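hiii, so i know i said id send this last week but things got crazy w the move. better late than never?? heres the sequnce for the chain we talked about at the cafe, plus the structure i predicted for it. fair warning i was half asleep when i ran it
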Amino acid sequence: MRSANVPELNVDELTRRVLTRELATWMKFDPSARDGSDPEGVHQLRVTSRRLRAELDVLAPVLDPTAARTLAKELRWIAGVLGRQRDLDVLHDLLSDLEHEESPFDESVFARLRRQRDAERSRVRDALTQKRYRRLVSELARWAVSPPLRVRRHRSARDVLGPRLLKGLSALFSDIDALGPNAPDDELHELRIAIKRNRYRSEVATFAFGSGAADVARDLAKAQGVLGDLHDCVVATDFLRAWSASRWPVDAEDQGRGPIDAALEELALRMDELRSAWRAPLAKARRRSTVLYLNVEATAPSTDI
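okay and structure toks below
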């Protein structure tokens, strides 16, 4: 059963609607990503490229496989180009938040980070002026007008989205069950990526299943946010430890170490809190996905795609 206010879409309408939305976001933030005037531009292009890859995955049964693989490859490329700058921007903001006015960091902390950010900004600008990037944007525009479908265009969108969405959620919750009570941070980072993919899939499914899929997506977004904050703290900790080790021997005493040690202690406290906060929203997502499962099964087609 779908929400009463959700229109019945076929796969052509669904695919064009999804791609049109993503293209609009892409074109909105492309200028600021190119000129570096706002870090949000790079962030939004990176998010959109990753979301598109997840959407291509859930739409895979209806898309031409060769065309979809080619587009996914280019989206992976541009996400990789944008990723390092975005990570450094987040690291800069987090370190700025940790620095206290009465006990500032050694100026070389931000000097090192500034050099790295400048190098990445230059690399991003170069990539966004390449023919490869222009071809990618042109391809997205073509897909938004006429997606390369390999099934009948009038096929129900619910028939396509339901099974793929449920399969992904089932695998996600199985992965969560396999984690121990004190999962290492690298495993939680991989879990965050899996949560993100399923969040994007759930957001696509709102076109067909309405509020049920939207509720799951919101819970997954909360868990993703917690694990994202944890990952940012881990990256900041590694950066400060590496900088400190390059600055002083392990047993050295120096007034400049005080602010760094204080920041590391604060990061450790934050990480402890975050490590205990990600399971609650996922438990809600699991409960909501059970309701969604029943609704999807009630409308499942009698034949395979």
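btw The chain has a mean pLDDT of 87. thought thatd interest u
miss u guys!!
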